[in-house]
Design brief:
This protein has 253 residues and is an alpha/beta fold. It is built from ten helices and seven strands. Helix 2 links the parallel strand 2 and strand 3.
Length: 253
């Protein structure tokens, strides 16, 4: 992977990325570790994969704490934050990356539970660990960010609406976070090549990825989008608290 952040620029900082055992989350947490941050690798049900990643990150000379948690279960989230507090003493960066809603066999309102309620639950549980100067990053998609003005594929609409609900709920916390000296930014990306969601949508709508790639000119891959998430954790926060990644010409304002 290409070096994204300056080596040593995050030395002494502590970062938790939810859903970081694979995909965008894994690459984001790796960028932080390469910059010297101690990191928390969070997973839901793939412990060996998370442990393997953590072992690789420790070889960079940083601490890597592996924490399994069901983000829809407040007790599970509290247990994770307790372990983080004991091991690291606090957090400087919280990336709310984990999302879902297209999994089979889940409750009808699972997407809303995970993409809205759980995001608030994780933030609330992390607040005692976040001191002045900390940064919270919420990761979403253009299909969700712009869902109120631009329709998306029917199969993704419930997820998009739930992620937008999560974004709106988190934005309502901006004044309270600012009072504590905590910054907040949303990172929204176009369809990302290589993600589980893009693969599932392409399976349901054969040609969907190719069609979107043609519309946008290019699509970011997992590592490229993760690099934007990592940068957003340290770059100045835009006035509208929003960092848009990739083409937006197809989406309404």
């Amino acid at each position: 992977m290409t070096q994204i952040l300056e080596p040593g620029s995050l030395a002494g900082r502590r970062a938790l990325v939810t859903g970081s055992s694979r995909g965008v989350g894994a690459d984001t947490v790796r960028y932080f570790a390469e910059a010297g941050a101690d990191v928390v690798v969070n997973f839901r049900n793939k412990a060996p994969r998370a442990e393997k990643l953590a072992t690789e990150l420790r070889e960079l000379g940083v601490r890597a704490l592996v924490q399994g948690a069901d983000l829809t279960d407040p007790e599970s989230v509290a247990g994770m934050m307790g372990a983080v507090s004991e091991e690291f003493g606090g957090l400087d960066i919280l990336v709310l990356n984990a999302s879902g809603g297209m999994e089979g066999g889940m409750a009808e309102d699972y997407a809303l539970q995970l993409n809205r309620d759980a995001q608030l639950s994780v933030l609330d549980a992390a607040l005692p660990l976040l001191s002045e100067g900390a940064r919270v990053v919420f990761v979403t998609s253009h299909q969700a960010h712009f869902i109120r003005t631009t329709p998306t594929m029917p199969e993704y609409t419930p997820v998009a609406l739930s992620k937008r609900a999560g974004e709106d709920a988190l934005r309502e916390r901006i004044p309270a976070l600012a009072e504590r000296g905590i910054e907040f930014v949303v990172v929204s990306g176009d369809m990302i090549e290589g993600t589980v969601t893009a693969t599932l949508l392409n399976r349901m709508n054969p040609g969907a990825i190719e069609e979107r790639r043609e519309q946008a000119g290019r699509l970011y891959n997992v590592a490229e989008f993760a690099a934007e998430v990592a940068r957003a954790a340290v770059a100045p926060v835009p006035a509208d608290h929003t960092h848009l990644v990739g083409d937006t010409s197809s989406f309404g304002a």
